[in-house]
């Protein structure tokens, strides 16, 4: 089965309970991760979570089916979550399909694969598209309008009355990342003691008290320095990251989002096209025209294809090494900036 980020829930409801494998791909890793979290929360018995990496599945393809058919230490339910890049999960999912076709995956635990940089045209996705026991959902980079709508929906569910201008402000502040947006809504609900049965109206002062830093004093100057190859500016931005305690994973997510945006724009721009007009026509916020135009000149389509999975790998590394995340991020930002500085 195939779906998008907007209709995957409806497709699943129509398909019944027979779907056991979920392959969520596309450039919006944040959206795919949020969708997986929602599906896991809706499981009758989620039980133990087993996390697998793309490198583990690539080196040991049988690991996936072994985990999906085994029981937890205490005999409880379990579910499998794999974060992979590109085609790393192909052989593992081919094994899953082979066993399922032989009737050996009945009763197997649900498997959720978040495949950064893969698409519905990939070899892995094609294994699953025609199967009734698997769902392929494509998550495209979100735009400001859709994330603003998502913020309003989150606020309604949390018992918050949120105006459209403030919802858009939150969407911009989290760089269109729905996971960070949900965190902002949760903080506001806690701050105002709001809930579905006790709704509260959110004022600008409330968000100023607990909200995330805006793009101007948050992640984006650091992201722009790295992707723009600004080697002289980068050290001061890294120092600022440490001084104000910017979340390394949040910075990495912002990098992923910008790289995905650049990849989408790079595929549409024509040689010799007026950059300002092109960016305006493609909905790029006018304050970002200079930075994004400069970055498009430094990162060609082929270089971006390598950058996107590299950033996904950085994200996984930071999650697995939280104590050293700040140092690891700084080292990678310097590497990316040096690479970008040579692209004219």
From TrEMBL:
**Matching InterPro entries:** DNA_pol3_clamp-load_cplx_C (IPR008921), DNA_polIII_delta (IPR005790), P-loop_NTPase (IPR027417)
Q: Which GO terms describe its molecular function?
A: DNA binding; DNA-directed DNA polymerase activity
Q: What is its EC number?
A: 2.7.7.7
**Biological process terms in GO annotation:** DNA-templated DNA replication
User: What GO terms fall under cellular component here?
Assistant: DNA polymerase III complex
Catalyzed chemical reaction(s)? DNA(n) + a 2'-deoxyribonucleoside 5'-triphosphate = DNA(n+1) + diphosphate
Keyword annotations from UniProtKB, A to Z: DNA replication, DNA-directed DNA polymerase, Nucleotidyltransferase, Transferase
Alphabetical list of SUPFAM superfamilies matching this protein: P-loop containing nucleoside triphosphate hydrolases (SSF52540), post-AAA+ oligomerization domain-like (SSF48019)
Family of the protein in this entry: Belongs to the DNA polymerase HolA subunit family.
Recorded hits in NCBIfam families, A to Z, give: holA
Q: What is this protein called?
A: DNA-directed DNA polymerase
Originating species: Aurantiacibacter luteus
